Amino acid sequence: MKKNFSERDVDRIIEMAWEDRTPFEAITYQFGISEQETIELMRKEMKRSSFKMWRKRVQGRSTKHAKLRNDDVNRFKCKMQRQITGNKISKR
User: How confident is the model over 64-84, as pLDDT tens digits?
Assistant: First the structure.
């Protein structure tokens, strides 16, 4: 991985990756890293058992990939998530 993220950014990427309704495309949009780079970051930052549990959970999950999502879902984030714009997280 080429990018250096702050601790806060890494925490946010991990949080977004764990969220069921946040697709990898949202992480790409906000932080400029691909799905593969997100997986590498998760592998590096998490305990092995936590990473394996996460991979098992997101493998093939339709909500984690925009192309597999139902057409009714046209947002990057769930309704309960705070407003996100660009790389800035408001109200935090």
Answer: 666 655 556 555 555 555 555
